[in-house]
Amino acid sequence: MMNKALLVIIFSLTFCSIKAQQIVDKIVAVVDDKIILYSDIESQYAQYIQDGEKPTPELRCDIIEQLITQKMLVAQALIDSVVVSDDEVEGELNRRVKYFAQMAGGEENLEKYYGKSIIQIKEEFREDIKQQLLSQRMQQNIIDNVRITPSDVRLFINKIPKDSLPYYNAEVEIGEIVIYVKTSEGSKQYSKQKIEDLRQRAIKGENFAALAELYSEDPGSATQGGELGFTNRGDLDPTFESAAYSLRKPGDISTVIESRFGFHVIQLIERRGERINVRHILIVPKTTSYDLAKARNLTDSLYDILSKNPAMFTELAMAHNEDENSKQTGGIKVNPNTSNTYFELSQLGQFDQQLALVVQGMSPGAIAEPYSYKTQSGKSAYRIVYLKSKTKPHQANLKDDYDKLQAITLQSKQAKVFDEWLQSRVNKTYVKINAPYADCDNLIKWNQPND
Hints:
Distance between the termini: 45 Å
Number of helices: 16
Helix content: 40-55%
Number of domains: 4
CATH architecture of the largest domain: Orthogonal Bundle
Largest sheet: 4 strands, antiparallel
Low-confidence stretches: 1-23
Strand order of the largest sheet: 9-4-11-10
CATH class of the largest domain: Mainly Alpha
Mean pLDDT: 87
C-alpha cells in the first residue's frame, strides 16, 4: 500500500506518478493553528522533479512558501465566509480520480494498487481537495476587482526591453458555421423498432451479451458483449446514465432510451455504491441521401450569402451554427489549450487536420467553400470556414497583439495586488518555521516574532 505522501502527489493538480518512499514525518512549519509536515513538502518536491524541475535547495523553500500562502488563504476564506459546496468538492474528486484511473488502466487497477476502494481514497482526500478549492477561491476574490486601462497596457509594455517582449509564431483566428446532418424521423422509427425487437428477445430469455455482440453498433463494446466496465456518475451520456442508474437488480433491462449516440437498451451487471457496470445494445439511425442533401442545401445557401457579404458571418453564425462551443463566440473557435481564439498555424493540425489544410490556403477575411466532415463525436456535418485573421511570426507589439498584451498586463497587476495582500498579513499571522528551512531567503520575512 502506498503512503499518504504519494497519494497527495496523485491528487495534486498535475497528477504525477512516482514510487512511494518511506518518510519519517515531522513538523516543518506552523501557520496560526495549522501545521506543514515534511511529507507535504517532499511529496510536492517529488512532483516538481517528476515534471522536469531542477532539484535545487531553493525548490523546497519555494514549496514551503506556497504551503504557507495556501493556509493563510484558507484562514482568510473562513473569516470572509467563503465557501465551496460539497458538489464542487465531489466534482473535483471525481475528475482527479477519473484521470488517474485512466493512467492506471481502470478503477479496479487503481483500487488494487492502493488496497482501498475508490470511495475510501476519495474520503481520505476530501478535506485536502476542499482546502485547495477554498484557497483558490479566496485568491480569486482578492484579485477579482483588478482592472486595467489601455494606458496601463501601454505603460507596462513600454517598460519591457524590446528584445524581452514575447515572440509569437504565426497564428490564425478561425470562424466556423457547422450544420449537422440530421436523421429523418422515418429512419429513427425504424431503428427504434429494431432495438425494441432485440429488447423483447432479451426479456424472453435470450442472452443479452450474445445479442449485443451480434447486433450492437457500438464498436467499443460490441466485442465485449456490450459491457462498458465500471463507471462513475458523470462519466456517461446523461440520458443513458439516468436509465442505467434506475436499474435495481443485476439482470434488469431498461426500456429503449435515446441518447446523442442513438437508441440503447441497457442491462445492469453490477452496482457498487455510486459505481456501476452495465452492458448495452446500440442501434444508430442511418442518414439517407435526402438527409445529406438537406444539410448541404442549407450550408450552400449560407455560403452564397457570405460569399457576397462576409461581414454577415457573426450574424449568421449566431443564428445557424450548430456547434455549441463556437456558437457562443459568434462562430469563432476557442483554443482549448489557451482559452483564447488564437491557434498557432504549425499546431492547428493537432486539433483538426482537415481544418488546418483548409485554412492553409486562405487569406484573412476569406470564406471557404462548404465541406463535409466527421465531428470528434462521430457526427456527420458540413462546415463553412471563415479566416478572421492570420499573423506572421513576430515580436509582440500593441498594434497586432493588444489582446494578448492586455492579458499579460492584467496578470502582472493581479500578481502585484496579491503580493501586497500577502505582505499585509506578515505581521498579522503567526508563522514559525523550523530548521533547516528557517534561513531560506524567501521565508525570512515570515519567520519573525509576532506581537
